[in-house]
Amino acid sequence: MVQQDKPILLDVAGLSVSFASDRGLVQAVRDVSFRVHEGEILSIVGESGSGKSVTLLSLLGLHDRKATRVEGSVSFRGKPILDLPASQMRAIRGREIGLISQDPMTALTPVYTIGWQIAEQIRAHENISARAAHRRAIELLGEVGLSNPGEAVDRYPHQLSGGMRQRAVIAMALSCNPVLLVADEPTTALDVTVQAQVIDLLLRLRKDFGSAIILITHDMGVVAEVAEQVAVMYAGRIVERGRTEEIFSAPLHPYTWGLMASIPPLTGPRLTKLRSIPGMPPTPETVPDGCGFAPRCAFARPICAERPPLQKVGGQAALCVIDDAERPALRRAALPQEELA
Amino acid sequence: MNAEMPVPKPLLTARNLTKNFVVGKTIRPGSGRVLHAVDAIDLDVYPTETLGLVGESGSGKSTLGRCLTRLYDITAGDLTFDGQDIAKADAAALKPVRRKMQMIFQDPSASLNPRRRIRDMLSEVLHVHRIREGAAVEERLQELMELVGLRREYLDRYPHEFSGGQRQRIGIARALAVEPKLIVADEPVSALDVSVQAQVVNLFDELRERLNLTYVFIAHDLAVVRHVSTRVAVMYLGSIAETGETDALYAKPHHPYTRALLSAIPQPHNRGKRERILLAGEIPSPLSPPPGCKFSTRCPYAKDICREQRPQLAAIETGRKVACHFPLD
C-alpha cells in the first residue's frame, strides 16, 4: 500500500469518448475513472474494441478533435489537461508524458536515422545544441540496452530488428525523463524471449527513473508480471479494478473470471476443454445500456438490463450485481479450482 | 496382420527436408544470397495426432508448414504423404493430394475473398474436386456450417459481415470441405482475442475427435500448443531443436532453448513462482546462421565444441529427440 501514500499523478474522472460516424455518435468509452500515483504501474487489460487505446489517446489529446467528443475530466499533476490548447498539450506530451506505441515500425519514420529522431524530440522540448542532443541519444540507447549505441544511433529503422526498434522507441519516450510513461501494447509485436527482455527493461527503468507507467495490454501474463494496479475494460467501461494480487487471487467480475479461464495453463494438469466465453465482444454501436457483458455472461439475470452497481471489496471494485454473499460460489463454478489456490 | 502391436505408420514423413530462398538476386549472374529457411529437417506426423510446431518469428515454422503441404516447392529432401512421394510432384499430381491435406492460415480476413459469398467460396471447393453434385452440394454446405458452429443462413453473407472468430471458422470450414486427413494450421488462433481464441481452440479439439483428423498446429503461443498437441517440435533458425511428447517436453525440457523459451512466458497462473532464464539478443539472421550449433550465440551453456560442430537431432529417451551437445537433465 506504499503507492497510496504517494501523490496522485494522473486523475481521470468520468471520461467518455464518442466518435461521429455515419450512424450518428458512437460511444467508445463510457464513464471511465482511474488514478495513477507517482511511480506506480497501472495496467489496463481488455480485448480489441474494449476502448483501452481510445481512452489513452483521448487523454493525451491525440484524438481527432473534429470528429471526437470527449467528456469528463483529466488532471495531470493537479492541472486539468483535457481542454488545454493543442500547443500546450504538445509541450506536456513527450516531455512529461512519454508514449510507447505498439508497432515500433509505425512510430519511427523510415527516412531518418534513429539518433536523428531521438535528438529531434529532445530539441523540441529542450534548448540544447544538436551535438549535445545527439550525445544524449547515444546515452539513452545505451540505457535501454542496445549493445552498441554509438553505431546504432546512425542506423535507419529498417536496419534494426524488432526488439531493437522497440528499444529505440522506448529510448525516445524516455528522452525527456517523463514522470509518466504510457505504453500501448509495447510487447505484442515481439517474440517471447524478446518480450521478456523488454518487460525487464520497463521494470528497471521504473526503478532507475521513478516514472509511473500505464501499460495497455491484452496479455494477462504480462499484467501479472509487471503491474501493481489493474483495470479490466470491457465494452468501453472499466468493469473491475484493484491491486494485481487481488485481481488474480480473487477476481470479482464474471468477465475477469472468463478471461482467466480462457487462458490455457502452461504447467499442471492439462484441461480437456478450455472454458471459453460464448459469443463475441459487442461493437460500440451495439453495447447494451445496462451491463455490457450481460449478453455473454453465464450469470446474467433480468436486473442486468439496468446499469450495474459498483461493488467494493477493500481496494477492489467491480461493476456487477453479484454481491459478496453470492460471489464465492459462482466464482468456483466459473474458474477451475487450482487457479484460486 | 501379425499378432504383435502394429507400429503406427506415419501419415507424413519428411527426410532431410530443405527449403532455400534466394534473396537480393539481380540480373547479374551469381548474385543473390541463399537463405536457409528450412534446413535438413526430419519429421514424422502420425495419424490422428496433433503435432505442435513452435518457435519464434524467423524460426522457419511457417515455411516448414508450407513445404509439408507443398504450397512451396522444396529445394531438397524427401516428402511422403499417405504412402505417396510428393517431394517433386507437379501441380497436376498434387491435385488429388490436396483433397487429403489442407491448410488454415493465420489471418482469416486475408485468406477470404471479400467479394465472394461464403456459399460461393465453399461450393467452389466442392466443384473443383468434384466432391458433390446437384442437391448434395447444398446439403454438404449446411453440414459444414454446422460442423464449425455457424448458422446456415450465414452462407449468403460476405466475409466483412463476420467477426474475426467467425471468419476463422469459415477458414476451417473451407479446409474441411474436401474431407482431408491432414490439416496444417499456421497460427490459426493468434489473431483472435483471448475469449474467442478459447472457442476456436475447443473447435479444433472437437473436430479432431469427430472427424479423425491429424493436425500440424503451428503457433508461437506455447500455452495454446500445450493444450492442443500430443507431440511438440521446437524450431530454431530452420532446424528442430527438440521434439517429444507434449507433457514430458513441457515438464522437463532438455534443450537449453526450450527451457529458456518456456521460462520467458509470463503466466497469470502461479505468478512470480517461475525461474527465468533471460536470453540475450535475438534470433540470428538465417542469411548467416552461426557455425556449429545455431543456438550457440545465445546459449548460456555454450562451450567451444558448440561453436564449431553442429549437433544432430538424436534420441535421448523414448519419444524424445534433442539437438544439443550437452542436453540438460
Word description of this protein:
- Chain A has a domain at 254-340.
- In chain A, 33% of the residues lie in helices and 23% in strands.
- Chain A contains 13 helices and twelve strands.
- In chain A, helix 5 packs across helix 6 (130-143) and helix 6 (130-143) crosses helix 8.
- Chain B is an alpha/beta fold and 329 residues long.
- Chain B has a domain at 242-329.
- Chain B is 30% helix and 22% strand.
- Chain B contains ten helices and twelve strands.
- In chain B, the strands form two sheets. In chain B, strands 6-7-8-3-9-10-12-11 form an eight-stranded mixed sheet, sandwiched between helices. In chain B, strands 2-1-4-5 form a four-stranded antiparallel sheet.
Label this structure with key terms.
heterodimer, A: 341 residues, alpha/beta, 8-stranded mixed beta sheet, 13 helices, B: 329 residues, 4-stranded antiparallel beta sheet
